[in-house]
Queue: 4 jobs
Job 1
Amino acid sequence: MSDRQAIIRELAREALAEGRIDCFVGWGPGYDGSQVIPVFAKDAAEVEELQWNPLCHHNLTMFLKRKMAEPADARIGVCVKGCDSRTLVALLQEGLVDRERLYIVGVPCDGVIDRRKIDREFAAEVVEVGVNGDTVVARTAAGAEKHFDRPALLLDQCAACRFPNPRVADDIAGDTVPEPEGEPVWPALEEFESLSPAEKDGLLAAVFSSCIRCFACIHACPVCYCWDQCVNRSRTPALVGQRVETPENLMFQLVHIFHVAGRCPSCGACDRACPVEIPLYLLHQKMNKELYDMLGFEAGVNVDDRPALQAFNLDDPFGQG
Amino acid sequence: MGDEQKATHPAAAEEKSGASGRRTLTFDDVETLAAIARAGHRSGNPYLPEMASVVEVIQETPNIKSFRVRFTDDEVMQSFAFEPGQVGQLGMYGVGESTFAINSSPSNNDYLQFSVMQAGEVTTALHQLSMGDKVGVRAPMGRPFPVREWRDKNLLFIMGGIGSAALRATILYCLEHREDYGEVTILYGARTPVDLTFGYDIEEWQSREDISTIITVDAEFPGWEGRVGFVPTVLEELAPEPDNTIAALCGPPIMIKFCLQVLERLQFADEQVYTTLEKRMKCGIGICGRCNVGPKYVCVDGPVFTMAELRELPDEL
Amino acid sequence: MKFLKESDLPAFLEHLSGEAAVVAPAKVDGMVRFLPWSPGTEVELEALLARQSAKEFIFPQWETFLKFRYLMVCDAKRPGTTEDAKMELRLSEEGEGGGEVVAVPAPAAHELLMVGAEQQAVSQVIFGLRPCDARGFVQMDRVFGGYGGFYFDPYYHARRSVATLLVVSCHEPRSTCFCRGVGGGPADAEGADVLFTRVPEGFVAQAFSDKGAAVLQYPGFEEVSEPQVAAAEQSKARAEEMVSVPFELESLREGLRANFESADWQELSRRCISCGTCTYVCPNCYCFNVTDEVVETQGERLRSWDNCFNPSYTLEASGHNPRDAKPSRFRNRFNHKFWYYPEKYDSLLCSGCGRCITYCPTRIDIREVLSVMGGNETRAAGQAAGGAGAADGQVAADAKVGGDAADGEESQHGR
């Protein structure tokens, strides 16, 4: 698995050297030994910063949205995991990115670590995370150390992932990983769906009282491509008011969820971007389950598909059971 | 504004001091200007608008209306004072506020005039106003044209389209104090004759012998017998002398850009050229943060700036 | 100076809550936040920083500036009436013979009743602030307080004047702390009414204002002993040593001015997603929006937090946007905090808490930005070129994910 990193670097180096791209977007080291950040490599030296490890959680296709990349006509190389590639497929389905200007390096993935699951186990700040096979070691500045079993630390979505290999790519960084068969499962929703309506109301009220309307979820979402003209900011009409309290916050998020429905593969970028840990992944999963149950549709799987809510079929089961 | 505050108004101060101690208002006199700016706000809350009634609506052009508003509190109306070039926040309760130059004359105690081009949310709502409707006014705000510093100089007013609204109060003031200034030239242009504002003023200005008024439209237009040419072109043709002359300009960005080039060619120094900027504004009092050009807030450090000052600022107009 | 036993902290807060609303950091759902405190709430002081600053208690995320209500009166229908009633502006009735009778309101039929918003504020005591949190208020005081002859904000002032700030000094920094880099420190008293320093079994408390002195009158405070004072000094000194100074402040303002057009802004802002998280968690970002929110004929004018990363922050009605490009908005935040604000108000607008780094979705690092802009070309410590990757077969301790430390060394940052 570790040679995926070497392969990514090699592919990036070649693409830059051959002038096929202006810039390669991957993951690299952050401000301390536990942080990974998006990295924009433009030469061989910067390529050496690129990494691949289970903390590489960012969905880098968020930088392909209009007006995110500068300059707008840059030719971009980008690393995508399985889930990331599905948002890229969604963008391609709608013609929102120019395939000709993209060089896609697909990275087969066997799970991304949920950083929050580590942080929760420590009182102090974790400044170092090391991964060796299935063992994860986390350490604070004072030297307090804990060992974890990697599978137990993965993001909830990774346990149910059926698309660990990229759905679209020009080159693949290493061998593909086994792909689970069968129908989608929704483990994150079991508990949520067992709640009564009143309990669900209570849960939503509790989590949305924390929302600070920072728009991190919307900006981090690769398929929220209206981001700089988001209807949630609109004054004419003003759908969402400036009272930053639960009813408006819930409306704000519902607008986002409904707008991305049919294009959202539950990559979880929104959930990870949220500074107050609102369970956005859970809510998007709920939307996606409804879509799947209703229309048998999963977002971002085949470039030639149309997003479910942009296609109408007379056989669609609207208004039926 | 009470009598106490009126007494500290620079104009009043000068009247009081008479010939011996003329107090010149300098561009740097921020304290005084802040006091003037605060003077219109009662109860010490600069966010609270003063209620006013619309007393007249004038359709200047197809998309520009002038609103004459009168404070509902007569005392406020009588004691209201402002310097030419200052602006106000004109707003509708339930819609919001927008910034407009107060373009009636400072000597006018009957009403304030704001000219509004319909463009966005607030201006569209303002255009629905009719007589008797209530609006909110927060004024005066901002740094004015230093009309007293300009005494004994020649004045050149260059305006395009709705830019006339930004300069009207200043022109009216200078014409009311005509003897204090040298040559006065007004150059005003619009796309078509239909787009010229303040027709009632233009007539009067053109009839005066002691000022030079040049009105122009961008292109030939049926029924138009006057001058034809873009404002910068006409300016170049006029070739005004820079000696002891102040140029004040306002209009569409493209007009300003080319006029500045012409003025430079004509050897006007940056300190002789004034303009007034506009930006999206909310608080209008230098706090909400959004109207900045570099370290200057257009609402309190401007909207009037000299070219010399603008050259110091970063390029984010 | 006085001493407060750790075990007496709840009683102390309860005493304060008799006269003011108490706010303190508490852990809920694994997150530490400043929350209204009530007896029984456990105060969280192990974690260094609450997730957000406490600015919302003095500068709320939204508040009402004024309220308004339209009353409509149709003189033709009910002449002379100014009762509190809502009516349709146009009334249409079938008249005799099938014609339509329309009642048209007389001119000036609109009457507007407006109520100015009150600026009363509840007394508050905010306990558990860190020096950077308190300093944030002091920095914001300038713009809201009419420094330099500008305008005075009565809404901010109403809350600020009745708030008591009780600061607890820091025992160790986070890897993102840089208070010393901006002229502050982990035991600084700027803005504190009382500064508490943790010592064995309690806190040494020192008042820095009349409000603070009044707080120390609480009978639960004990006389402080020499060893306790010494322990407090030691703790402060130790914390001070641990905070690094990652960029040079002296040359920063000039550097930002000189670098306004620099292509570095493009580079530094590449991974920025232009959200607003940094501004909202910051103790002193204060830019705001004013909007009218209406339901039928009544409504309120609200002030709410806004931020310069909002793509429509400077969008003009004509469609022109002076800061349309993401790098220009990114640049504005740093310029505002380290050039514009100091130029106008003789104060920085940053207290070095580092929350903007921790909660940024892509970990934009303000220290790196300021290092580059201040003329120090090298990247800030902690940002490595060539991080070590996880390698199979290596001992776990050496298999670091990122950071700049060579094998076996602790991460440079924070030490």
Job 2
Amino acid sequence: MSVLVLVVDDEPDVEALFRQQFRRDLRSQRFVMDFANSAADALTRVDATSDNSLILILSDINMPGMTGLEMLPKVKEMRPDVPVIMITAYGDADTRRKALEKGASGLLTKPIDFAVLREEIDTRVAQAH
Amino acid sequence: MLRRLFGAGIYGFWMTAPSQDVVADLNRRIADLERQLKSAADDNARLWNEAKEALERQTATADILKVIASSPSDVQPVFDAIAASAKSLVGGFSSTVFRFIDGMAHLAAFTPTTPEADEVLKSTFPRPVVHYAPFRMTQAGEVTQVPDTEELRDEIADIGRARGFRSMLFAPLMNKGSSIGFIGVTRVQSGTFADHHVQLLRTFADQAVIAIENARLFEEVQQRTRDLSRSLHELRTAQDRLIQTEKLASLGQLTAGIAHEIKNPLNFVNNFAALSAELTDELNDVLKPAELDAKIRGNVDELTGMLRDNLQRVVQHGKRADSIVKNMLLHSREGSGERRPTDINALVEESLNLAYHGARAEKPQFNVTIERELDPNAGTIDVFPQEITRVLLNLISNGFYAVAKRKAENTEIGFEPVVKATTFGRPDHVEIRIRDNGTGIAPDVKDKMFNPFFTTKPAGEGTGLGLSMSHDIVVKQHGGTIDVLTTPGEFTEFTISLPRTSNLADKSRG
């Protein structure tokens, strides 16, 4: 079974963006991408995948309902082995500190540098095999 | 018989010579009546004199009070009037008014006698009171007389001889139990002074004290009014500054808010445009091996070509929009919020470095010579350091833009772009000058350049907010001034002046 990267963002076009950016990897099935458009939805998905296929979670912070930072400790409790990288427009030191405190492995600011993101994914994919 | 007819005391025509006793008795009675008449006349004269003196005293008192009323802030006319009145009413030789201030006796007023004698008087004062006999004599608060100056073996005798008098009368001016001066009258002849003259001088002394107290209170009221007026002005200024700071803060928040909101959709525009450009290339690659009719292939190539070009244009404009947003965020970034003592030279140096490296990072081929002339006396002043840095960055980068433009426009050989920063420390303010030898500013632009959203930069390069913000920060937030000197085609120099202290304990947000 392929490894899975879960992306959590309320903006629907994020899926189109990611699928186009990583079209080659997805076509070659190096990994699979799944998309949740709310923190609640994401938690349901994480609960469902109790196997090792989930290797990385990418999450926006500002979302209606539960925010990314609120979701973070919950998801880490469910799957402490899965790294979570937060994506946000607000790259200030305070937000970074909060994210790391709550268990995030890192913080990326928008607009996303897909080259950097690709490296992160590659690292995890390599670790999984 | 005759006696009975003509009554007593009448001597008859025909001489029946009265007796010796009767004559003596009559004589006695006449003498008595004469004495009584004389006594009554004397009493009359005395009462008349007393009334006259009282009237004189009352008139003099009323006159002095008039002078006091008409001159509430200046005691000099009162002293002059008292000296003149005292002298004329006492029938004296001269009169003086002295004041004791900080242990020195000062001549406040005097009636002139002869130029030489007046010189003697004036040249003796001011002098320390401790050695001055009248000071000692009047400390008790009583009117004092010197019936004969020759009997005193001190300088008073000398002065008396030099000026030409033999007797003196002093009335002390008493305030809260100590003598603050005295009124003195002198006479050519020796002898004690009449009681009513003593009384007169006592009255004048009281009035002089009233006048002094009046003037002091008047001045206090004036000073109080001045202080209040100044406080009011300072409060108003502080209020304006506060409003301005709040305005800047809210404008900053508004701009930041808008910029953040725009960033999101802008990111999508840029991302998808770039992706689409890639996809059109992939389309081209996919179609290459296909067998297509020449005409169809021609159309396909043309269309994919246009698609790619269009998408590249979208990417390009998207990047411009992005830099505008970044610019706006830079200008609206909220300050640290505290006004604190800052080394001006260090701030200027830091701004120069930031600006230089920032400009080089953006355009690596950009070259400029940075000069600095920093006055060691510039020192430290209270400012909002992030805001002043922002102003300096704005001015310096405007300078970079101007010199780059001049270099590009002209083909002058040997034109060296130079931006120079100078500081001057003055006692009550610090000046910072940023000078560039760039394109200068045209007169019609100079009038508008501090207006918000006014810019001479081409579309997308400038927000038109830089100078407007800088002006508000310097003038409204710090109470300073910003001026510009320029010659089109040659140079531009901005001068910022920041006051060293403001009386505002202003720790509000920047």
Job 3
Amino acid sequence: MHPAPSVIIFTTFSGLGFGLLAWLGLGLPTVTGWVACGFFALAYLLAVGGLAASAFHLGRPERALKAFTQWRTSWLSREAWVSVTTLIVMATYGAGLVFFGVRWSALGWIGALLCLGTVLTTAMIYGSLRAVPRWNMALTPVLFLVLSLAGGALLAGQRVAAIWLLALAGVVQILTWVRGDDALARSGTDMASATGLGDTGRVRAFEPPHTGPNYLLREFAYQVGRRHARRLRVIAILLMAALPIALLLLPLGHAVAAVAVLSHVVGVLVARWLFFAQAEHVVGLYYGKR
Amino acid sequence: MTQLPSRTDRKLGLVIDLDTCVGCHACVISCKGWNTENYGAPLSDQNPYGAEPSGTFLNRVHSYEVLPDHGAAQLVHFPKSCLHCEDAPCVTVCPTGASYKRVEDGIVLVNESDCIGCGLCAWACPYGAREMDAAEGVMKKCTLCVDRIYNENLPEIDRVPACVRTCPAGARHFGDLGDPDSAVSQLVERRGGIDLMPEQGTRPVNKYLPPRPRDRLEREVDGTALFLEPVADEPSGFFAWLDKALEKI
């Protein structure tokens, strides 16, 4: 799949933002006044900024409000509802902390749950696509949720939770790669089933429909060099989980924590780039591409 | 509504004969022509006269080489357009309701004025049947020429999809695949029509007729020997006289 910057930024930063909001909703840390204002501003910047980035890949962004109508079947529509509801609930909860210095804990709990719901709906947009076997697994939403909680814990200054969640995120990420690598083969879709010509013999793409490129190839047939992919995976795991954990184990200062956050964010961006770039869409088979 | 109808009154679709298709791409051109001038936004081209021309097409013809375990390779031309699936994954993922499947005839359509161009339906389609138009920013797909098949301004013979009407080899057939007695259903029955990617669970309406096995010579023949073989084993007439005369010398 084409790794469009808009969707990479969208999933990474909205995941972080909603992760932070979830921890704030739980009252970890319980902050009020200006400190709360700072935390909520950062969380909203990430969450809303991420959501806004997703609008950049729309062909007709001016009609975006119509995306609220089909929640019965579409995960994208569900995401629109859950994310907006979450932002409203958490804004109310945040207003209590910032302006009145009170924590409406029930509202915070509901908000935290909604935050996870938002991340889940985002992940299911990808996880529900059967045509992309690498995404079409239960591990996809698990990975998105764990990463969001880990990044949120890191931003919320929850040191112990962050260490455990980052480690868990690293494990889930590696599992996702291992399971994902043969997902296309396990799906049973290959050139033989795509063309229905498998009974006659071995099928090879002889001529593409056009000599030039097209939307399908640009959007779905992105290929990463295997060697690069392996290197990028190592970089992603080191930056996303290993380095932040190591830094958190050091005596914690704000500067060290900032480096840990930065490292984590860059790591997740690399992993998210791979999430798209390595995903094989079965339509590639019609073009003789994996 | 992006909820799929539990059943449709008819299942209009195409039957594509891979045995007959000669790979001329006439269906590609007629499709592009008709659908640029009629229903919805035109199918745009980008850089059409430049080094890397690219454009929106609702129908594309691939060519595959099939190599059996024994014998010669076979070239199969393979037209591909929307299969108007019964369990169309492109419809259910649409967040705006722009994509829908019609109850009356099963055609999968896009209401372009509701489409936000998110591209998710194209991601969900395993067949690559949907293409985002780069100029219009909305999703384009085969309409089964919905503006031809019911169009009473056209002569009756033209009330079929443009690709079917134009195919010079008669490799494309249009009809109701929900009716077991229709000509297309009979054809599918007779020729063992198949679904593409059945494991994807989309239940496509369009069917493909696999290429029939090619005639095979009973024994291996030396190409040159074919021409040098004697025309007649038992000579008669002039040759019989010549044969006898030569033997006597």
Job 4
Amino acid sequence: MKVEKVSLGGIGIGLLSLGFPFLTLKPNRLAQGSAFSLWNVLPPVEIFVLLLPWIVLIALVLIISERPFYPLLVGVVANVAVLTVFLLVGRSAERLMIGQEPFARVSMSFGSWGLVGASDILIIDAFQKARAYRPGRFLIAFSGLLAVLLLLSTGYLKELSILKEYAVRKDRFLLELGKHVTLSGVAVLLAVVIGTPLGVLAFRRRLLERPIFFVVNSIQTIPSLALFGIMIAPLSVLSYKVPFLREMGVKGIGSTPALIALTLYALLPITRNTYTSLKVIDPAILDSAKGMGMNRLELLLTIQLPLSIPIILSGIRVSMVQAIGNTTVAALIGAGGFGVFVFQGLGQAAFDLILLGTIPVIVLAIFTDKIMQLLVTLLTPEGLKKAGEILR
Amino acid sequence: MIELRSVTKKYGDQAAVMDLTLTVSEGEVCILIGPSGCGKSTTIKLVNRMLEPESGEIFVNGRNVRGFKPEFLRRRIGYVIQYVGLFPHMTVSDNIAVVPKLLSWEKGRISNRVDELLHMVGLRPETYRHKYPHELSGGEAQRIGVARALASDPPVLLMDEPFGAVDPLNRESLQAEFMKIQKELQKTVLFVTHDLDEAIRLADKIALMRDGAIVQYDTPENILAHPANRFVHDFVGTDRALKRLSRYSVATIMRRAYSLSMHDYPTTVHEYLKKQPWLRFLWIVGEKGELRGWLDTRDFKEQGAEAEVITEVKDPHFGLSDDSTLRDALSRMLAEGVKVLPVLDRERRVVGEISLKDIERVTEEVTERWSE
């Protein structure tokens, strides 16, 4: 019997989480809470519902780990597991809040997060192992996420502390969501516009390769906070001296420095991948194309571009995920985004407010990553689908 | 035809090709061969302007190559390289269609041409049209490479070690395919290889190069029989007499064979011996004329018609096919331990005979001027 290490690991973590506190109840959002294990807070029926997916998973590992559709089944059951955790968390939160003061707070604890995390491990593993089922396997990646989002929209989980924080600042949340997405999106767009030609230049002129990558690499090493901060002084001066820019909304703080810094950070994956994608094309291909009578433009459009698109798109994918994360820090210089909640929560020592800022960023990043992965798969030319075919 | 006049190509101070003059007649296959660094690949690349010479002129079909834009020139010259360079993101038929598309042929014409070319290189169009390069074997890929080079029906073909990256069995097959295509199309071909046997097999003329200059330019037979200097002599090897034999087909050297059927035995034997008393072997054939056995007339004379003088041929592969070379003939004679072999057509009918003496006569032309 083939040992499915990752599956066993995931199940192990899940089972371990059963022993940890499921929910925490606090008299108010700042105080210490008391822990409740799932055995205390769930009626037997619900305990069974919670455990059922895990029992099925154990059965799957033991019985059919060799079959080709094993990853698909694991993926589906793991998604169900995620959904059941949130379902039961919602119900239990309601139950715990009965008879409590309105400013009492219930939040998920180590145990419930552990179950979600363990399920995610299984989902990711299943997604990767289900290579034969592309693009169907993207369903495994998204379905659990979408189900939980659906659950959220129905208000099922409204008794949870995070959602109480959300309820108080709904409009602000949407505003910052918009700012966050816009900032990351525009930054990556600008990075593509600047970085792609830069990568082509580095490939075409050997002398420029070192300096270009030196600059782009160095930018990556600057801590994000420092880069955001460095922008403030020169931009303020510029804004002061040039009224036109001030009219346009360019200031030392706010979205302008944030955008500049985020774009600079987004440059490396795109520039490097563009460069690599060209470098990695078999010279015999270029030789024969040239010898057949293609000029520079025809070579670029019919040969180099189609062959380099998969790698360039992968670079954009990395850049987008990175940008979404980096944008969180932008809140510190007044640019908005989910970081607003993170830093507010830090200031107020309100843990659930911090989570309100962090979890959306994580979800956004994972979602973007998977969508981009799907896009890369769809846009890779047919003849290149076999792994490594464009590489020497 | 291709003409190079006093062409020099330098890399810094080093001359890769020095004052080279070479003419390849129309319809001829000229093979450039020589040790590494002799300038053979450089020469080919000068013809389609992948490289530009420092001095000298190059003409293709009478027109100076400098008179055209490089891209324009290359679309009218076929170019095949060692590692093929098929475009991995395109199907086989799209790969072949590249130059016709660059020349704005219309779709139907291109499609027909692709099928025609696939046939020519021995691949079934229905099967191969929609395949991708990563699904092809090395031999198949190179066939597509040749098809692609021939797509626009260029008068001139440049081939730079085209079969070098292919295993020996496939190479043999590709060479045979090339000879068949060349016989039909009669292209002017400039071909580079480092494999002497390949050069001997395929070339109408061989240009042996060294340090950027041509040392000897002649037919393979002449180069092998009369090497111009010590270098050529050493390069072609000590077995050049044998190598030379592969240039001659048995069909050109064989003599008339005399055959008779069993029904006519022994009366016909007497008749033959009366008219040609020097006849040594008579071939016994069946009803359709196929080889059944042979008769040594010496045994017949000594022992008479009643004795067991006829040797039956049981081996279905005995004898030489009519497309064998003298080299095959010698090899078979040594293997069978005989000095005479019949030459048979595809139905195994006797069309001639060839003896060791006939082969010796050919090798006698090989001169020995330098001691081994």
